[in-house]
Specification:
By secondary structure, this protein is of the alpha/beta class. It is 28% helix and 20% strand. The strands form seven sheets. Strands 11-12-10-13-14-9-15 form a seven-stranded parallel sheet, sandwiched between helices.
Length: 701
């Protein structure tokens, strides 16, 4: 804050900030009433607390140029309630806003007059010092503000839940139950030593490539139990609610009741806040949850676990877009805790952690992998197509058809289809011109075999569509979805139940009976005893995406599905066998593929070998921000280039562009700081348009 000639506090970009009038210090003997010969103190005059009268407040304000704590005076009537971490209301720029008390100090560095706190919303210390420091570091790493990250870290208050009596701590119930020994970790040469390090209170960090199957939940639960027995807490972050349910069951079996809590968005605000408070108050010592649980206030953190770090749901969609892998790595480093980043496959980002020496590789030996992996075959080479003429046009070649027919006699068969819906994309039946909406030029699709084409952008029905090139009125499928695949399989396998699992309706679990399960990637339900076979169709759809991570993501989706198949069960993938992701799947060797992918990205300077920032806005806004940014030495600006936008009926489409800034990995913090300062300059100018800044975005191409 600055001060004008009249003594009014000024905030750049906001103008005058009202403040209280100066308070007169009372002399000894003066109080609420006058002493002998003295004057009575004016009623309603607020006095600062005698000890630590200044509170440093993190105000809920997302403007970049105001991303710092502000000092306020603590009145005597709020002295006992104003504790570090509590929620308060303060007057800021003439308005009452929320804030959190970071600390209380004896005096302020501010030379002007200080305002008093208006009130304490809740004296519950919901912002712990460890989480506050983590929030600050995450905001600095991603060129964001403290307030934006704090909204992700601390859930909204629920007053009724806060008023409920505090349950007894789980520590009073004794140590968590569980079995001794290595258990599921005995399949990994370094597994027992990893558990021993956790038991001794050390901080082992590992990137874990799990064996196929469902034992990953038991292995994580055992690592959590060992950590809790050492007197420390544990945090497990998984991709979705289904994984939370599986992990919750495994933890309950390993730890017993009342030791851990599960945090998911489906709980509702009251129950979620109740469980979050149980963690804050120490009633629960372990947490399992989705992305939002990465900031859970686990006391004395000893182990942070992230499962399937390549899943894009681990990337926060709200500013400043932090990734759970980076947040948990920062948290484990700050808390001197152990870290376990696991999955059936290996991402290049996790491989970067191994190559840097921050983490160690935790894998099984090849002999054990061969006994647990399925038998993978690929269909897509010219020689195979020549022997199977129907495979040139059919989506289910004879090899896959025979594998499914034989496997159905032993149990369910999984069929993975990359696209949901019926026919997501259609084209002219004569000249193959893509079918587009005449109103907005959006892609047309079909919802069923008897439905008319409709636009996926504006929803317009195109029942009278004709090709603008040749005038033909019939269409053909370009991409076939899960519903159409299920319809075709029902005709190919009469008498066999066909079930679908996708975004609209996800199957939780499947029995051992024979059935065909058509699923989109990520929605595959586990089958009791495992699937007898799996068919991975339309590999070209996944591999052909214009994305830097297309091969890595395709291999992850394939391996996640194939891991549900019984050991040595058949898996047929419809893709060219010479492609590196297909070869990695056939050998079940994601580590070598990730190491090769990382080496190639180092040569061309792509993440995670380098750090990149994405700037998205109108061309003028990007030029202004780049002009204000003091980029570090060696920074390279790529673009800007136009960004395709989805038209909205009745709305004006504003042209936007995107620019990429690339720097060496060591200059990542300098890049984030430069962009944060440039955003602050634009914010102080009260620039109307904001520039979307993303550090290391998942989508670069």
């Amino acid at each position: 804050m600055t001060k004008d000639g009249g003594g009014t506090d000024l905030i750049p970009g906001l103008g005058e900030l009202p403040r209280t009038s100066p308070e007169k210090a009372e002399k000894p003997g003066e109080g609420g009433k006058a002493g002998k010969g003295g004057k009575a103190r004016k009623k309603g005059v607020r006095r600062p607390a005698e000890e630590l009268p200044v509170a440093r407040i993190a105000v809920d304000m997302s403007l970049p140029h105001l991303d710092r704590p502000f000092d306020y005076l603590v009145p005597t009537e709020l002295d006992a309630k104003t504790v570090p971490g509590c929620r308060v209301r303060v007057r800021f720029a003439g308005q009452l806003v929320d804030g959190f008390v970071l600390e209380r100090v004896a005096e302020s560095d501010h030379e002007g007059k200080l305002l008093f706190l208006e009130r304490v919303t809740s004296s519950e210390p919901v912002l712990t010092p460890e989480v506050a420091a983590l929030v600050r570091e995450v905001a600095d790493r991603y060129a964001g503000t403290f307030a934006d990250v704090l909204r992700l870290a601390v859930p909204p208050r629920h007053a009724r839940v806060e008023a409920e009596p505090v349950a007894a701590s789980s520590e009073a119930e004794g140590e968590p139950s569980g079995t001794e020994g290595s258990g599921a970790w005995s399949d990994y040469p370094a597994g027992p030593s990893f558990l021993s390090a956790l038991a001794d209170g050390r901080a082992p960090r590992a990137v874990w490539t799990a064996l196929p199957g469902l034992d990953w939940t038991a292995a994580i639960a055992q690592a959590v139990a060992v950590t809790l027995r050492s007197g420390r807490g544990a945090l497990v972050v998984v991709a979705d609610g289904r994984d939370v349910a599986r992990m919750n069951t495994a933890l309950r079996a390993e730890l017993g009741e009342g030791v851990h809590v599960a945090l998911t968005a489906e709980l509702g605000p009251a129950e979620r806040y109740r469980r979050w408070l149980a963690v804050l108050r120490g009633t629960a010592r372990a947490v399992v949850g989705t992305r939002a649980a990465m900031f859970a206030p686990v006391a004395d953190l000893g182990l942070a676990v992230l499962w399937d770090d390549g899943d894009d749901v681990h990337a926060e969609p709200h500013a400043p877009y932090p990734h759970a892998r980076d947040v948990l790595a920062l948290r484990a480093h700050r808390a001197k805790a152990g870290a376990l980043i696991g999955g059936f496959t290996r991402t290049t980002d996790a491989t970067q952690l191994v190559e840097s020496g921050w983490a160690h590789s935790l894998t099984a030996d090849r002999e054990r992998v061969r006994t647990a992996m399925p038998r993978v075959r690929y269909v897509g080479e010219d020689a195979q197509l020549a022997r199977d003429a129907a495979a040139r046009s059919a989506r289910l070649p004879n090899v896959a058809f025979e594998a499914a027919r034989q496997a159905l006699g032993e149990g369910p068969v999984l069929v993975q289809v990359p696209r949901r819906g019926y026919v997501p994309a259609i084209a002219c039946g004569r000249c193959r011109t893509p079918a587009q909406c005449v109103a907005c030029q959006g892609p047309l699709s079909l919802s069923s075999s008897h439905a008319a084409p409709y636009c996926r952008w504006c929803g317009r029905i195109a029942g009278d569509w004709r090709c603008p090139e040749c005038g033909f009125g019939q269409v053909r499928a370009v991409v076939v979805g899960a519903k159409r695949t299920a319809e075709e399989l029902g005709r190919a396998f009469p008498g066999v139940p066909v079930r679908t699992s996708g975004r609209d309706s996800i199957l939780e679990r499947l029995g051992p009976e024979r059935a065909l399960v058509v699923s989109t990637p990520g929605a595959e339900p586990p089958a009791e005893g495992g699937y007898s076979a799996a068919l991975l169709l339309d590999g070209w759809v996944l591999l052909g995406r214009p994305d830097l991570r297309a091969g890595e993501e395709t291999l992850r989706r394939w391996m996640n599905a194939a891991s549900l198949v019984r050991p040595q069960g058949p898996v047929v993938v419809a893709a060219e066998g010479s492609l590196p992701p297909v070869q990695a799947l056939v050998r079940w060797d994601p580590v070598t593929y990730a190491e090769r992918e990382l080496a190639e990205r180092k040569e061309v300077g792509f993440p995670p070998a380098a750090r990149m920032a994405s700037l998205t806005a109108t061309p003028a806004a990007i030029r202004e921000l780049l002009a204000d940014a003091r980029l570090p030495d060696g920074a390279e600006v790529l673009g800007p280039v136009p960004v395709p936008s989805t038209p909205v009926p009745g709305a004006d489409v504003q042209e936007k562009e995107r620019a990429l800034i690339r720097v060496p990995r060591a200059a990542g913090h300098a890049l984030a700081r430069a962009l944060k300062e440039a955003q602050g300059v634009r914010s102080a100018r009260k620039t109307a348009e904001t520039v979307r800044v993303q550090i290391d975005p998942l989508e670069l191409i």
